[in-house]
Write a structure and sequence with these properties.
Elements lengths: L6 E6 L5 H10 L1 E9 L4 H17 L4 E3 L3 H10 L2 E7 L10 H8 L2 E5 L22 H13 L2 E3 L5 H10 L5 E2 L16 H9 L3 E4 L14 H15 L4 E3 L9 H9 L31 H10 L4 H19 L4
Helix pairs in contact: 6-7, 8-10, 10-11
């Protein structure tokens, strides 16, 4: 059994409540990257920040707003959780590059260049054609690098992802996805992307969202941890972490909002399914934040030593935060 590591989750989008915050505390997580935008424009995103400020006020014994890597260590010391903001789309910067810095000043630390579709910056993984990073995308990556806003390519298509890794002067992140060699979901990443991530010192966060798992909800912990071990061989043990993509207690209307936003009148079924399906059940070994320890124990079971488990469960993300969140 693994000893208690520093636990960092690089992506969650829960229906936030006192119950969830208590589970996070029980699970021993010192930091979580939370989604505060899917399709929102700047003003709508600001309202989400306002909502989070209320959470920070009402549950200050459990959570606070994280801005720097040192906030993770503070959280660990105090038995609280540092909450880091991120966007799953570039919609809040609209077509104004000046908003990149403003978003960073509001405490945002990750921004996906695309969410499934073509954006002003790049191409999402659901598009048939991927022309790569756009003219604006190149400028925005440069500005994100300057201010300390991480380029996240979790929902992006292959060519755009590889170009972003190349264009960015700082390591990028894929906060929540798995390798296609294990499960060929549209959102999962090829070996070519894994190699490019490893070579550039970038990060991959492994997802436990059932659509990203081999055998879906029935995926075994052993299968998941063997996949982690195989990925470590491809891109190095210092470039991998956990990004569960946990969407706990969310109604199906939320998954519909994620997929459809305001851009279509039709239902986008997503993940190649023939009918609209809401959130699939989580695998039994990861129901909520209290099960983080199960992943650590699973990694020990497939042969990782304690120091490597420490890296994967949190230290790699901590090092990445340290290198990434400050202006150049």
């Amino acid at each position: 059994m693994a000893h208690q590591s520093l636990f960092i989750d690089a992506l969650q989008y829960n229906n936030w409540s006192e119950e969830v915050f208590k589970q996070i505390q029980e699970g021993g997580l010192s930091a979580i990257h939370v989604t505060i935008c899917y399709h929102e424009d700047f003003q709508e995103m600001v309202q989400n920040v306002i909502d989070w400020n209320r959470y920070f006020e009402n549950y200050s014994n459990m959570i606070f707003h994280g801005r720097t890597a040192s906030d993770v260590e503070k959280a660990q010391k105090e038995g609280r959780t540092a909450i880091f903001f991120g966007f799953q789309n570039c919609s809040p910067i609209e077509d104004n590059i000046g908003l990149v810095e403003i978003c960073h000043q509001l405490g945002v630390r990750f921004m996906q260049l695309t969410y499934n579709n073509q954006s002003l910056l790049g191409t999402g993984c659901y598009e048939d054609n991927d022309p790569g990073i756009t003219r604006m995308g190149k400028q925005v990556i440069k500005e994100m690098n300057r201010v300390g806003l991480v380029v996240d390519m979790s929902h992006s298509a292959e060519k755009s992802t590889l170009e972003a890794i190349e264009i960015s002067e700082r390591p990028i992140a894929i906060t929540h996805a798995n390798p296609t060699f294990w499960h060929p979901a549209l959102r999962n990443k090829s070996n070519k992307v894994l190699e490019a991530l490893g070579e550039s010192g970038s990060m991959l966060g492994f997802s436990v969202y059932a659509h990203h798992l081999k055998d879906g909800t029935n995926c075994s912990l052993e299968s998941f941890c063997n996949m982690v071990a195989e990925t470590a061989e491809i891109m190095g043990v210092t470039n991998i972490g956990i990004g569960t993509d946990l969407c706990q207690n969310q109604p199906d209307s939320i998954v519909e909002w994620m997929r459809n936003g305001t851009w279509t009148n039709e239902r986008d079924y997503g993940e190649g399914s023939a009918s609209f399906a809401g959130f699939p059940d989580q695998p039994q070994w990861f129901r909520d934040n209290r099960d983080f320890i199960n992943i650590a124990n699973g990694l020990v079971s497939v042969g990782f030593n304690n120091s490597d488990v420490d890296l994967i469960m949190g230290k790699n993300w901590l090092n990445f935060f340290e290198a990434s969140f400050k202006p150049l």
